[in-house]
Structures
1.
Amino acid sequence: MKKVRIALAGFGTVGTGLAKIIRENEEWIKKRTGAVLIIEKVLVRDISKPRPFVPHPTTTFTTNPAELLEGNPDILVELIGGTSLAYELIKKALEKGISVVTANKALLATRGKELLSLAEEKGVGLYFEASVGGGIPIVETLKESLAGNRITSITGILNGTANYILTQMSQKEWDFSTALAEAQKRGYAEADPTLDIEGIDAAHKLAILIFLAHGVVYPFEKLRVEGITDLSLKDISFAQELGYVFKLIAQVKEKSGYLQAGVFPALLPKNHILAKVDGPYNAILLNGNAVGPIMLYGQGAGDLPTGSAVLADIISLVKNNKQVNNTGFIESPFEPAKILEPLSVVSEHYFRFSVLDKPGVLAALAGVLGEYNISIAQAIQKASPSERAVPVVFLTHRARLKDVKKAIKEIDKFDFIVNPTVHYPILP
Amino acid sequence: MKKVRIALAGFGTVGTGLAKIIRENEEWIKKRTGAVLIIEKVLVRDISKPRPFVPHPTTTFTTNPAELLEGNPDILVELIGGTSLAYELIKKALEKGISVVTANKALLATRGKELLSLAEEKGVGLYFEASVGGGIPIVETLKESLAGNRITSITGILNGTANYILTQMSQKEWDFSTALAEAQKRGYAEADPTLDIEGIDAAHKLAILIFLAHGVVYPFEKLRVEGITDLSLKDISFAQELGYVFKLIAQVKEKSGYLQAGVFPALLPKNHILAKVDGPYNAILLNGNAVGPIMLYGQGAGDLPTGSAVLADIISLVKNNKQVNNTGFIESPFEPAKILEPLSVVSEHYFRFSVLDKPGVLAALAGVLGEYNISIAQAIQKASPSERAVPVVFLTHRARLKDVKKAIKEIDKFDFIVNPTVHYPILP
């Protein structure tokens, strides 16, 4: 039986998960591929660490990156993350004609063009199913199943950590820091959670989806990226009262060839299909000009789900080794995306004003909003006996984000405004 | 540019949809495949019918099946349905070394083994993404993305007609025949709706999913198949009162290498992810031993969604013409499934008894259930002043279906039973 020799960079959660699946499902994988997968060499940081689980009796461990590809493996699996050593390893593998499987969204979002061009030039595989949505087959779906569709929109919950935090805040009325601490305790959030809670991780994934769906490069630094660190329990409960839940949304919409893209917290109506995606789950809702709406849902992270996606890529490379399909395009179209100004996005909006309870306040607020063509759909005003400031919440009809930002700037100059105005869009 | 010559059998809803997508997305498909797709010949029933839309300036129409493959096309797309002419056409194409794309679930469920063996022998493609779930990429997902997983369960809403009817009954309190008439009016149900409402269509699709997930043939005639024709509004509203909705479920569970499979109406807790799949939508919830739970959701029928799936297969064949992947297995394992007796399935249950309102009735019912190890979790008894019979509804704890059937048989002998007992499982 054919042997597929794998070099594995990184033996953390996902690397171990992958090795376990390969062991557990070995006979099944033979039926699927006609091959046996052997993890021959593993690059680790600490060679002295005890390894209760070893991928294969012949596996050797090394701390020296230069050694990893020495034996000319069939496939390099890169799971160390980061954009420096991972970049060097992948580049070296591709140059040697070795196919690569990676879960590295940060690297692909920022240097994907360069690496995919190199893979194309060398005629080898560079697969990355695990980079978006954990075990959810979204990369394959965009490259293959929906290849004949023009994708008009993608709306995703792409970060399980942020979604877990928002779910706990909504359901248990925890504040942000309590929910974050719990996420860290459960292993859903890292010690430094910045990438997750600031929306950066979701934005990396969005950049990859944009490339797969539209065949263009959207410069990562031009994406609108807003995280959830400022979200307060107050807004979550007002939203609930109005029939909405908060989600951290990654979205791209295509309008006459131009793309409007960003990551931002938004309110979703409770009956929206993405509103039910709770806890560490991810989901991606796509619209294609033929298929209509499609949603894919599953675990966005974790050892086995992400390992499953890495394994899917390995199997695909083993089966189609003569005809790799890295991008879903015949010649990777690396043109820059035509970008629609993120602030031109139109949607309904949520406002919470902190005001002094005195006559004329509502009229003044409504007046400024009206000047910017923002009309009010619903309002809540609550007495707050213990506090000096009274919250006033508005839901508006559709308005441009740019106008909303301008209106807020003007409103916050009023002397009856106690705290800066809070604003979130309703899912565009 | 490379030309891909397509012979199309059938120019109804899906065939026209396919031709429209190919036209609309022609430039895009070139970027994806490096080829132009040309529908050269179309087999129709009535040549004199006006054709306001013609796939390509060079397309010719014929009513003679023998003519369809005369020009040795690259791909036959079979969309006429049925199991006789469709079978002959596909067989002939495969024998001539022509790859086939089909949406024909009835044919695949009953004669798939024979046709897939022939395709394997000839080394050509036989692709069928459109046979299950319309535009949802479930076939590709099972063949490729989840190929490294052992699938432990599949639970699907696979028939959009039945789901539309159940949704209308639940939300609008229509009875079955009103909802069916509306489905027919909207084009969701055919003039003869038997295949849809009796669960047969869903069972065809389930047989295909079982083959793809487990690599075994589950004889179609051995599937448990129960439809929704007897479902009454009474049961739907009792279920709602208890926090459940009715769905027509297609399910297979793997237990130690044995498969338990069937199509049946069942109650789903309202917060179950499949409970929110409404109207003509389909969804498939899978569990893999690596990926965990995954759900795919989309339109299960219709010209463009199903056309999108057919196009996905065509694109896949064009791109991977040297390495077709019909089944997801290296050598199609056509062994028969090891079948777990459908009646051995264990779940919670819903009962509605029609009884005379007299002393001792509840005790007698509970007594018989107890004899069969069925214990009651919730009960509703309602006075019904206008009718002689009073409904008594029980939800039970987990019990074997076989025991449930026996208990009902015994209970229905009581003289206080006015109408035969109604029973449905809660989603196992």
2.
Amino acid sequence: MNNINKVTFIGFGLINSSLAQVFKSKSLAKQICAFSRREETRDKITKLNIVDIIYDDVVNSVKNADLIVLGIPVGAMENIISEIASSLKSGAIITDVGSIKKNIMKSILSKLPNDVYFVPGHPIAGTENSGPEAGFAELFKGRWCILTPDKNTSKIALETVKFIWQEAGMQVAIMDAEYHDRVLAITSHIPHLVAFSIVGTVTELEDQLKTEVIKYSAGGFRDFTRIAASDPIMWRDVFLNNSDAVLEMLGRFIEDLTALQKSIRWQDGESLEKLFTKTREIRKSIISEEQD
Amino acid sequence: MNNINKVTFIGFGLINSSLAQVFKSKSLAKQICAFSRREETRDKITKLNIVDIIYDDVVNSVKNADLIVLGIPVGAMENIISEIASSLKSGAIITDVGSIKKNIMKSILSKLPNDVYFVPGHPIAGTENSGPEAGFAELFKGRWCILTPDKNTSKIALETVKFIWQEAGMQVAIMDAEYHDRVLAITSHIPHLVAFSIVGTVTELEDQLKTEVIKYSAGGFRDFTRIAASDPIMWRDVFLNNSDAVLEMLGRFIEDLTALQKSIRWQDGESLEKLFTKTREIRKSIISEEQD
């Protein structure tokens, strides 16, 4: 793999802030740089004391950078790439941490010069908190990072990005971009959509009932509110950019939910029990997967 | 409140096992008894070493009991009450721990003699584990217990049951039974139904995709599988017995989810962002409620 003299983090939310802390603690680059358009964010980055140079100009921030990590909402990536494309160093590696891959690859690859290498990535890690101050180096430990190279992706660039995520403590898997988006639609996008939706339903309840719901939210609803507190812009862009896979899975889910609705209306206890017994098995598979 | 010489736990799942451990550690009754129809469960209770007499005959188990705690699926309560009604001691107090209250009250009250007091209760606490061995005395600490007496409920019996849950570390709230069922439909029953449903959708995926989904289930789906691993019989009975409130809320939820589906199909980012920003507020209300 290549040596990294200068790494530039574009955007400094939970993921990029955490990864920058890994770079710092493991000395993975000689110079750690960051760009953020917002003064408030730059002030927060300053206080963290992990970044050597903080830029307010994205073009300057990428000059001479060996590695650039895009940690911004998926919907903002194309414009940023257009801005920086002609200022990138020959041989520079760009990677991203977006939750969807197919659309990003298409729009980024079409804008990059041939002597710059793009490695699409998705570290599956997160909390409900966002912003530079939410970051911590241990965020990635023991989790999966999925990279979705295509047949033109540089092998050396791929190895470099793989090495970095492994240094962060992740297991790295290689997957087709479209397949990644289908898997994530189920494991992450639909659960988030459902949580956003159900918490949204509650915001529209009459005030008294809403107060009681918040007070007694110990059970399942509490977990849903945690999920539904995730970053709004990031999630808006996920749904807009992975709409095919999300709509396909959402269709299946609404079908199944409607069947359940019918079972309840017709007091069909047998069907309910059968389903609830089956869903226990999946939990067991996940627990045993983790213990492997 | 009355002194408790003999308490009988009917059923010995997570809640009753945990409450029995509170009785033991705080010496709340002179004699702790339990009934279970299943030999396997009785063997597990024996091993826990917290119960003085374990019965395989429910009629014998309640004889001379001052307090009886029903910790069985809601659908089984009416039959048990029919069996024991004529063997109850005059002045005995019966309480239950079921997640729905209106239907239970109706069926239990119609079967009890006049000199026995029923106090409907619902300790809002749980884990995804079930069975006697899943119990632990700290399960209830800091959580809410809702009691739903009606105008005929004995004040002394109510105070006794309230005292017990407070001894277990719970805050006790008094609520109308029907209102309880509406609140719980939202905070607990619908989230569970949705989790069961989405995990059910995954069980029907083609094998390869299902394997990947289980492997990369770090995000929201993992939380859903935990919820969907809850006791099947208990949840079947919840949905059958709280169908009115569940169907009302499910109707609202499916409406909202369908609107979201439309926003995604039409790439309406503004609506998505607006909803996702609103749902963050509810989380803040819950966190601040907990810090009060």
3.
Amino acid sequence: MTEAVSRSVYFVSESTGITAEAYGQSLLSQFGDTKFIKRYTPFINTREKAQALASELGHRAEAEGQQAIVFATMVDEEINSILKQAQCHYFELFDRFMPELIEATGLQPTRKSGISHGLVNLDNYEARIDTINYALSNDDGMRLNKFDKADVILVGVSRSGKTPTCLYLALHFGMRAANYPITEEDFERGELPDELLKQSAKVFALTIEPERLAAIRELRRPESDYATLRRCYKEVQMAQDMFHRYGFTVLDSTTHSIEELASLIKKSL
Amino acid sequence: MTEAVSRSVYFVSESTGITAEAYGQSLLSQFGDTKFIKRYTPFINTREKAQALASELGHRAEAEGQQAIVFATMVDEEINSILKQAQCHYFELFDRFMPELIEATGLQPTRKSGISHGLVNLDNYEARIDTINYALSNDDGMRLNKFDKADVILVGVSRSGKTPTCLYLALHFGMRAANYPITEEDFERGELPDELLKQSAKVFALTIEPERLAAIRELRRPESDYATLRRCYKEVQMAQDMFHRYGFTVLDSTTHSIEELASLIKKSL
């Protein structure tokens, strides 16, 4: 096996470059030990910018003694062809899949850029912004009367991962995600509020290992009772008893990333 | 040209399916008029699940008289080969790019799934969660003393798009993004706070068309003075004068989506 060397990587697009980065990172994640030096170059949307980038790639290939790897999504054929001829290993999404996709669909592509992440459909876009605002304003369980508007409601103890997961559901999937933090008062009553239980079909419960929870809480409020392992253990245990009693679907944020939690929730609905 | 018919599309993965969805959506966005019925099937991570999905694809092809389009990222060769033989138009990311990428890098892939969006590197993951918490707790300009910890600070009038853009920067790019809403008081003083100006190299200003701003504010507080076109026009004008005076980079949230704003900001740093 050869020694791990560093490789230059570019994510290139006429628009945001979000797709180029997503598929490039996914492919690179398969080469664990290699050090990739990543450069992000969105908005390469004129011949001049493409030529400047091609020239940069040429210089880099000479200076580094090897060609950079370029992940790109280029809709404009002329700009694409400039980069295709540059000194680099060129991986372009549309080139690779379009011919076959045209054959499969029997349709012709529009070849317009910025459609997937731009302001193309204003109504859709405003609906997405609205979901983000919904997640932010229903983040603390204080507006129980808005729960009927939710697509999904996450419940869990403080710092179990509800907020980041809600934001991901809103930003990435356009879902109206509320959350309800279980409080001391709920534990004392031994019950969750009626407004929440009425929506129990939409509820997903998050659990977390007490050790991990204590570490997260310690960062937030060092040396507080709130962050003690004893208290975390007790809260997690009582919460799990409740989840079980109400028959909620329970997901574990100790072993799942927010993307995984969000994907599991989206899949389950 | 043939009439637009609906087509079934699947996003498939052993893990979250986020990459499969991103590249599939990007390709489909090039076929504007066609109606695609999209199904999201993450966590196809066993032979049994793959066989069940292959069988579903077979039934669908029969029922719909045409094969579904499948965008997939399948790391496991055995699972991949089950789907590859299913009755569908199969577009798989790794198959398509890996052989050439192996040649370009001279390295062998690990063929492990869930690396790009899973909990693989806990330190990295916690750093990302930390950026989300940072964005949330620095969302209202109330903690000026934390601005030195920011990677970027967005300024603009209320509802100009600062919060969703900050959250996107945090969630997608892992950047510590704070924001400062310009208040009535700032306009009266004719100045922004020193704590902000000290960090002016990190500041990006958001502007927005007054008509659009008024419409957004009207949704939030109907029939308020805050939502009048007169007031929006005045605030935007005064804010732009300030941005110009301080030499801030100004981005327009009327014409750019939050993804585009975030990409422009990331590129500029």
4.
Amino acid sequence: MTAHAATLEVRTRGKGTTEITDDVARVVAGSGVRTGIATIFLQHTSASLVIYENADPSARVDLHAYFERLVPENDPAWVHTLEGPDDTTSHLRMALTRTSETIPVQGGRLALGTWQGLFVFEHRRAPHTRRVVVSVVGVT
Amino acid sequence: MTAHAATLEVRTRGKGTTEITDDVARVVAGSGVRTGIATIFLQHTSASLVIYENADPSARVDLHAYFERLVPENDPAWVHTLEGPDDTTSHLRMALTRTSETIPVQGGRLALGTWQGLFVFEHRRAPHTRRVVVSVVGVT
Amino acid sequence: MTAHAATLEVRTRGKGTTEITDDVARVVAGSGVRTGIATIFLQHTSASLVIYENADPSARVDLHAYFERLVPENDPAWVHTLEGPDDTTSHLRMALTRTSETIPVQGGRLALGTWQGLFVFEHRRAPHTRRVVVSVVGVT
């Protein structure tokens, strides 16, 4: 049994999704774990993780537009807006998606389905560098 | 320490929830792990996992109806509809719920609360066979 | 490698968020794990877990108000209301947030970001005692 951890830095371009599947897969391959789990954890409260279809980019067009509508920036009810109209909405969109994702490792590889990709979902308007911790635990 | 993995095939009947608690419990029992964790991971982007009350079926009536309303199929804004009106909405409903769930194992059993059941939440209209990977890591 | 588990009892004051970051950190410190993961699991279906900004309390004012609006209690469509107007809405708000969260452990500590706190999100009007299982797996 072994446990291995690495931190990825992911540069976002402002609002939207950035795929990190290959980066996480490299950490898993480097860990030597054959059977176990990989936990991916985003260390931020104004961005989140989401597993989404990674074949047809139009799927993510709807994802981005839907969250603009579900948690609109121009809502007069918000009180936590010190850092701008995308402040409180970033936290709410994060809470509605995910901060951690745990993916089984089988045969030394992430056991993702055919159409699944892992994305950092940036909720702030400005580009950010986001830290993602990948922790792999299992049998070598 | 040991790590064990198994894949379940879950037949859904189209939209709605299918309980898999007992199937996951069997994998945990067969793993020999006494203390540790079980990660349940759904390998699809148009269905999801949800832990929900499993005592009174009326609870899930509201769950199903609520998601129809929260992410409606007849919305003219959707662009990702190649596979039908339940295409993009399936992905969005998945993103709002869960793809992985990690449950502690204590005394060789899943440490679920009294009213908690684990369900596959099918978001497509047609029945599907869904693959669920269960990975158990811990001390025997 | 080791696996360690503990159950926390968290007293909520009715609807709202109660921070448990320090309680979880104590379990991690006591486990002796240096590198691995901590899974936090809430054994209830009418409360949930959420990682949220823990610096400015106004952030959580918006969180609480948003969920009142997203899943309103006074909706005539609900059928699962035997235990009151906060019955089915508690389950739905739980499904939209999280039941388990898995956080990497690095250097013997939870690898949380600077502004991240872990909270129990109570969805019932009345105060409750909520059980949270913390399971730590990794290398000592």
